[in-house]
Amino acid sequence: MIPKSALITGASRGIGAALARALPSSTHLTLTARDADALDEVAGSLGAPARRVETVAGDLTRSADRERLIEAAEAKEIDLLINNAAVGHFGPFLGVEASRHLEAVQVNLAAPIALTRTLLPGMLRRAKSEARKCGLINMGSTAGFAPVPRFAIYAASKAMLHSWSVALAEELRCEPIHVLTALPGSTRTTFGQSAGFGMRTIPGSRDPDAVARDIVGALGRRSLIVTSHTLRPAELPLRVANRLFTGLIGRATRALSG
């Protein structure tokens, strides 16, 4: 599908900003994140206002900010919702403040559920009236494949988001919507630094623009995409590192914590 208007959460950097770059230039973009300056920088790099980019700075843990974002999205009659925003806090469960755990649950789960439940009826109604498809992309993570000590809440939230998103896709199977669950592997972003990892990035991590292009290309063609790095023979030693966030997640995070 070629969306006419899209809302992307967590769009100030990383995969969110890359998704904004990957969507067609004809698509109106509503971008949101906490950092207003970073959002404006992304919008400027996209050629706004010529490309019709609107930024809505806000905190998805605050109901008032979510309501303001929903109003902006409804005004633009979005036909693509991308729930990309996420936070995580690396460390032992009892070593992280309860407020930070709850923040992760709010951003990673409550916000996508609230936005989807509120915006989806209008998206479906417009799609039916225009005899076209709308779209929903929920951004999971390969960290949701297994329990992850020292990253327990983040991994658990992504596991639940994955389960919810796949179930929702089945419920909406006969509706005019493409639902895509995206599970990125290790990607070169600042997420690890923000979460408190000791490593700046994992060897073999993919470029966010490549990940974003894969995700946008899968919409309407697949219901689930797990992004991964295709390694050349000379890069085979990196294969184990690249799998840290898949089958060996738990062991990897324990090693990172020392």
Describe the protein's architecture and organization.
This protein has one domain (5-257): Rossmann fold (3-Layer(aba) Sandwich). It has helices at residues 14-22, 36-45, 63-75, 98-130, 152-171, 191-195, 208-218, 238-242, 249-257; strands spanning 5-9, 28-33, 53-57, 80-83, 134-139, 177-183, 224-226. It has nine helices and seven strands; from the N terminus they run E-H-E-H-E-H-E-H-E-H-E-H-H-E-H-H. Helix 1 (14-22) crosses helix 7 (208-218). The model is unreliable at 230-258 (pLDDT under 50). The chain has 258 residues and is α/β, with parallel strands linked by helices. Helix content is 45%, strand content 14%. Strands 3-2-1-4-5-6-7 form a seven-stranded parallel sheet, with helices on both faces.
List keywords for this structure.
258 residues; alpha/beta; Rossmann fold; 7-stranded parallel sheet; globular
What is the secondary structure topology, with strand pairs?
Blueprint: E1 5-9, H1 14-22, E2 28-33, H2 36-45, E3 53-57, H3 63-75, E4 80-83, H4 98-130, E5 134-139, H5 152-171, E6 177-183, H6 191-195, H7 208-218, E7 224-226, H8 238-242, H9 249-257
Parallel strand pairs: 1-2, 1-4, 2-3, 4-5, 5-6, 6-7
Helix pairs in contact: 1-7, 3-4, 4-5
Alpha carbon gap, first and last residue: 46 Å
Pick out the low-confidence regions.
230-258
**Largest sheet entry:** 7 strands, parallel
- Kindly state the number of beta strands: 7
Number of domains: 1
Cross-sheet strand order for the largest sheet: 3-2-1-4-5-6-7
- CATH fold naming: Rossmann fold
CATH architecture: 3-Layer(aba) Sandwich
Mean pLDDT: 86
Q: What's the overall geometry?
A: globular
Indicate the radius of gyration in whole angstroms.
18 Å
Superfamily at the CATH H level?
NAD(P)-binding Rossmann-like Domain
